[in-house]
Sequence to fold (96 residues):
Amino acid sequence: MSTLYSHIIVVLLTEKLTFLFCRMVTQFGQDFEKAIEGSGSEISTLELSGGAKINRIFHERFPFELVKVWHTNQVFYSMLMVTLLVYKGTHFSPTY
Fold:
């Protein structure tokens, strides 16, 4: 009989913990969305918040990151071309 009661208690605790976890995740998502929109209850005068922060990152950092990606792609493209030229020069391919 005691194992039945302990099993019921475990099931009830598990359901309660699952409910609380889902509630925490939902609340975090709502708070995160409000922070991004800039409509949250916490407003700081020391830093940008919401869309202003995203706008700043996009306009100040994004162009530099694009240049880095472009440069990396150019280096890889050059290495690929050299590899293909070496491969073509060292392998005999008959033309018909």
Remarks:
- The chain has a mean pLDDT of 75.
- The chain has one domain: 2-90.
- Residues 2-90 form one domain.
